[in-house]
Amino acid sequence: MPDDRKLMIAVVGAGKCSKKLRDMAAVVGKYVAEQGGILVCGGMGGIMEGAARGAKEAGGITIGILPTGDKADANEYIDYAIPTGFGEARNIMVVRTADAVVAFPGKYGTLSEMAFALHAGKPLIAVNAWRLGDEIVQVDDPLEAAKRAMELAAKGK
Amino acid sequence: MPDDRKLMIAVVGAGKCSKKLRDMAAVVGKYVAEQGGILVCGGMGGIMEGAARGAKEAGGITIGILPTGDKADANEYIDYAIPTGFGEARNIMVVRTADAVVAFPGKYGTLSEMAFALHAGKPLIAVNAWRLGDEIVQVDDPLEAAKRAMELAAKGK
Amino acid sequence: MPDDRKLMIAVVGAGKCSKKLRDMAAVVGKYVAEQGGILVCGGMGGIMEGAARGAKEAGGITIGILPTGDKADANEYIDYAIPTGFGEARNIMVVRTADAVVAFPGKYGTLSEMAFALHAGKPLIAVNAWRLGDEIVQVDDPLEAAKRAMELAAKGK
Amino acid sequence: MPDDRKLMIAVVGAGKCSKKLRDMAAVVGKYVAEQGGILVCGGMGGIMEGAARGAKEAGGITIGILPTGDKADANEYIDYAIPTGFGEARNIMVVRTADAVVAFPGKYGTLSEMAFALHAGKPLIAVNAWRLGDEIVQVDDPLEAAKRAMELAAKGK
């Protein structure tokens, strides 16, 4: 890797969610982009789409690691789609690609991503998501989540 | 699949654990084998080894889906080793192969397997494992866990 | 693994093929089962189904490592279905599980399995399949292929 | 995906090779970058490193889809590393991510990538690589390979 590589922040959460939650995810994407980070996600709808939209609105770069094998399935805010064809197992790659992970509410797919983030020792910031233990930074505000994610990513790089 | 295929029960949990926990896992393996079920696990040590040992002591059959690409890494009680080389992503396959999943205490790898079991809609019985919600059957006794697993597996087959 | 574990022979080839080719694959499955080996395949139709049928007709045991995540997709001769959900990537696992691989004619999926067998250093016997180099044992007769596969598997175990 | 997404060209080949071959791979990377394409590869050494270097020297963007789970394993010319932890199975993702694939000489790992490219119906240009059939565009000159790859990628997009 180049020495000056950019920080990569993953945003995970439900593939279908309210507009309010999508907008909260967009706040994270926007801040990451403004600070020069790369937004990584699962490339589909809901939280993933919100986060990617926020990053693109701030002129940032987005990577979507898709469950399907077809890049046409990526949402419209994804610059670089990685169509894995590996289904839910792609969650592991989303987490491994990230320097820090921000989790929004989601069901068991999100829970598995949080579990893998903890397993991989990645900083994990939860915005009203699953409460799994003290290793997770719990916050209510998405901007606060984004700031903590960038800080912790920089520390661990 | 043949119409009379055998029920497959996965046992998941820590790769390193106390003798007491290994023996509890062996109780599940033994019951599954006695009832004609197949014991599926991740093929490594700890809970996985205990469960496989219990199944073999009762004359049963065991399948180990390994994280590594080398079948020599399987514990000595595994009849059929599937060396995936896919690391933790093999957890997903353990769960998909099973008709029901019994979870023992474990860290975040186990949590991810429980998350995938719930995601895949598989019956999940937890023996003092992560408490994640009402869809999980919580028990203290491994024999009770094994009985519930075989019952729920038969129902869902 | 137990010291006396059984040899595992993978049969790979087209998912759709003529009755003649299915019957040739069945000859391999039958011989493997008669000699106490386990038949491993991708669990679907064509060559895979022929090989599994041959093994079952001789009272043997069959393992099918499926591309889909649903074990109901396995052919009717599969005893133990491993529903991976990893699509074509499951070919790698078929090869890794085997002690030797017998390849029948097939298109590029089969070619990838042959490539992975060579990459993994597994003995590879081709029955009128892709001619890729001197490391492959080329034969015309399926019984000859089965014999060579069991011999080479025993040597490499 | 955005309507104006950039073309992605994968370069595959040996992880260790002569300087001459690395320089040939760099010619492909350079042309792809000059034409506004994205260079995709397996992120490691040899051909992959040569191709990524060429792209970076022309101010382009590079994506490396790694076999390991650690992004520190990427070569120094990779902008965006995807550490899969899936070993050789990541070859499938390299191919799926690409709009066209350029293959240089390599052993069986490269053969498997070519097989997957053909299986996935991706345009495949071989520079003195495995000769597998008429669907492959065979060339001797890397610049010619790069031009054909960009053309065929644009057609298939």
What value does the Rg of chain A take, in angstroms?
14 Å
**Most extensive contact:** A-D, 29 and 29 residues
Helix content of chain A: 25-40%
End-to-end gap of chain A: 12 Å
Shape verdict of chain A: globular
β-strand amount of chain A: 15-25%
Mean pLDDT of chain A: 94
Low-confidence stretches of chain A: none
Oligomer designation? homotetramer
Could you give the order of the helices and strands of chain A? EHEHEEHEHEEH
The side-by-side strand order for the widest beta sheet of chain A comes to: 4-3-2-1-5-6-7
- SS element count, helices of chain A: 5
Secondary structure class of chain A reads alpha/beta
Task: Summarize the main sheet of chain A.
Answer: 7 strands, parallel
Using DSSP, what is the number of strands of chain A?
7
Q: Can you walk through the features of this model?
A:
Chain A is an alpha/beta fold. The first copy, chain A, is 39% helix and 19% strand. Chain A has a seven-stranded parallel beta sheet, with helices on both faces. In chain A, strand 5 (100-103), helix 4 and strand 6 (124-127) form a beta-alpha-beta unit. In chain A, helix 1 (19-34) crosses helix 2, helix 1 (19-34) runs parallel beside helix 5 (142-156) and helix 3 (90-97) packs across helix 4. The longest helix of chain A is centred in the first third of the chain and has 16 residues, at 19-34. Chain A is globular and about 40 Å long. The termini of chain A are close together. Chain A binds chain B through residues 86-89, 92, 107-109, 111-112, 115-116, 118-119, 130, 132, and chain B through 86-89, 92, 107-109, 111-112, 115-116, 118-119, 130, 132.
